[in-house]
Design brief:
- The protein has about 325 residues and is an alpha/beta fold.
- The chain has two domains: about 30-125 and about 250-295, D-Maltodextrin-Binding Protein, domain 2 (3-Layer(aba) Sandwich), CATH 3.40.190.10; about 125-245 and about 305-330, Periplasmic binding protein-like II (D-Maltodextrin-Binding Protein, domain 2), CATH 3.40.190.10.
- Helices cover about 45% and strands about 20% of the residues.
- The radius of gyration is 24 Å and the shape is globular.
- The termini are far apart.
- The model has no long low-confidence stretch (mean pLDDT about 90).
- This is ABC transporter substrate-binding protein.
């Protein structure tokens, strides 16, 4: 009888231990994206299948750079995907990122990566001009390839530009011209461009829409998007800006408030892996080049040709962004 009691007590102890043990929690990643919905889902779904991790996606709302950074600070995300180098620079200045150097970051050229790992560069593009060929024909113009060609009298009230505060290609136009020509000549150009009365949109997608339907003739957009639109629509034509372009970097960063830092680091490692490099071209994104393949991408070099690209001073383009835009808009 005594043995039976001891056996029952031991069994009860084992059952109690089993009930009290913690069940393994499912792996999750809280992702905030500045990218488009389709591209974000391609990246998130691929990582989810590869790593067995549930990826919860939120999208960064529009607004000024500071409003977007405030939003990131107030919410608990593990990774911010799709930010620009200026945005990550300012986010780091405001201490909302935590450093991590992805495993294969050393394969990226030094000029395209953040050496301290505050953010990870992933993709690059350039500035393009997307033109409506029907409108150009009616005006007797060739597709513009330089900033000065946008000053043609026929293009007055025919330009669509995303708001400079959003960064990207439109702000890149300002900083590239300013750095390549110097402030005096840049302000002279700004005054002439302002006289063209361009329409400013809430995003480059809206600028493209205006060109697509023929209400405007030329939009300033990222090259990868311009080439996609050209491939889909015969009346649109993309050109690379030759005289003062910009290497536009898109990346990812781990947030200081990350609740799943291990998953965040694994996500960045995946994006820098060979599988991550091949992810975009495998899904039809052929003109958004991965920084890891930058030195070897002959197709990119053949496409952009001998464009003039300054080396951005992020301490200037990021910290003084509002002042740069104010002076540009006020040029007369």
């Amino acid at each position: 009888m005594r043995k039976v009691i001891i056996y029952i007590l031991a069994l009860l102890a084992l059952l109690a231990a089993g009930c009290g043990s913690e069940q393994p929690q499912p792996k999750e990643l809280q992702l905030c994206s500045s990218m488009g919905t389709k591209l974000t889902e391609v990246i998130a779904d691929s990582y989810s299948k590869a790593a067995g991790v549930k990826v919860n996606i939120s999208y960064l709302p529009g607004g000024t750079q500071q409003e977007r950074l405030d939003y990131l600070r107030k919410h608990r995300f593990d990774v911010w995907l799709g930010g620009t180098s200026e945005e990550y620079f300012m986010a780091d200045e405001q201490h909302i990122l935590q450093p991590y150097i992805a495993k294969e970051s050393y394969k990226v050229p030094a000029e395209l990566r953040n050496r301290t790992g505050q953010w990870t560069s992933l993709y690059l593009s350039y500035i393009a001009l997307l033109s409506n060929k029907n409108n150009l024909h009616a005006y007797g113009l060739y597709a513009p390839e330089t900033w000065d060609e946008l000053l043609a009298p026929q293009l007055k009230d025919e330009l669509a530009i995303a708001d400079f505060d959003l960064g990207g290609a439109s702000f890149g136009m300002i900083t590239s011209i300013w750095q390549m020509r110097g402030k005096e000549q840049a302000m002279a150009y700004a005054a002439k461009l302002n006289a063209q009365q361009p329409v400013y949109t809430k995003g480059f997608g809206e600028a493209v829409d205006l060109v697509y339907i023929g209400k405007k003739t030329v939009a300033i957009v990222p090259l990868d998007y311009a080439l996609q639109m050209e491939a889909r629509h015969r009346h649109l034509f993309a050109t690379v800006v030759k005289d003062a372009n910009r290497t536009m970097l898109t990346g990812a960063a781990i947030m200081r408030s990350a609740e799943h830092p291990d998953q965040a680091r694994a996500f960045l490692d995946y994006l820098m892996s060979d599988a991550g490099v091949e992810l975009l071209p495998a899904n039809g994104y052929h003109y958004m080049w991965h920084v890891k393949k930058y030195p070897y991408n002959d197709g990119r070099r053949e496409l952009i040709g001998n464009v003039r690209v300054p080396v951005d001073d992020l301490s200037w383009t990021s910290v003084y962004k509002s002042e740069i835009i104010r002076q540009w808009r006020g040029a007369l």
